[in-house]
Amino acid sequence: MLSFRQLVCFILSLLSFLSVFYSVGKLGVFLATPVIQQRDFRHVLLTTLLDDRGLLKATLFSLCFNSVWIVLFVIQHSAMKADVVKRFWRKLGLEMAERSVYNIGTAYCLLIMLKNWKTTQSYQLWYVDVESSPVLWWTFVSAHIVSWVVIYGGSLLMDLPELIGLKQIYYDVNDLAPPMSYKSRELRSFYGRLRHPSFVGLSVVLWITNSMSLDRLLLAIIWSTYMYLSWNTNKTDLEYQKYQLGRKKVELTNVQE
């Protein structure tokens, strides 16, 4: 029989699961969908943009507006994993819900950003016309699909149920220690510096697009910089991964024999 505390945490973990997959799905569609320009679209050069005060003000307003939601996401993604926040949840006796609440906050920050996003197509760094070429269309879409498969596969390898917050509830209900305590010291140290798989995969979904508008460029630059600064893995982590890969190769070789 679940206690009231466990029931609340279980509901939060389910909400975390649904929120993450829904928001990431929306983000994937937002980033992967090729841009089709309308027939009457007039491409604006940067020099023209600077000369046209009205267009410049509208573009800068959109970029500043979008920056608010991007910064909100970055602040939430950093602040909610701080030690002081984790200690707060421990004092309340809800430490097993900490990951779920973190994911819910991330998901809704993403959804708010996507709902309020303002596209600025007046100036583009590049534009590839994919409307008349199914091959080009599917090239861009396939690059995103493969990248998300890699990201999702990496999440499974990094213990997806624990990342979502479901495993913490299961362990608590069965009177077990938190799942992270069963992982090796090297793995816990590695997770402390890297909790998202595939820097390359996330970079692809940010930068590979047929239309690099200023708003898309803003998002790609800020998120890429944030990933680069946050993922501070070191040589020890690399050696640990090489060691685990070697073990896995030996295990697979023994199975085949």
TrEMBL record:
Please report the record's description of how this protein sits within the membrane: Multi-pass membrane protein
State the compartments where it is located.
Answer: Nucleus inner membrane
Which chain regions cross the lipid bilayer? 55-75, 96-115, 135-158
Q: Which UniProt keywords apply?
A: Membrane, Transmembrane, Transmembrane helix
Specify whether ATP-binding is a keyword of the entry: no
User: Which InterPro entries does this entry report, sorted A to Z?
Assistant: Nurim-like
According to its UniProt record, which protein family does this protein belong to? Answer: Belongs to the nurim family.
For this protein, the record's PANTHER family field holds: NURIM
* Protein name stated in the entry: Nuclear envelope membrane protein
Look up and give the organism this protein is from. Answer: Aedes albopictus (Asian tiger mosquito)
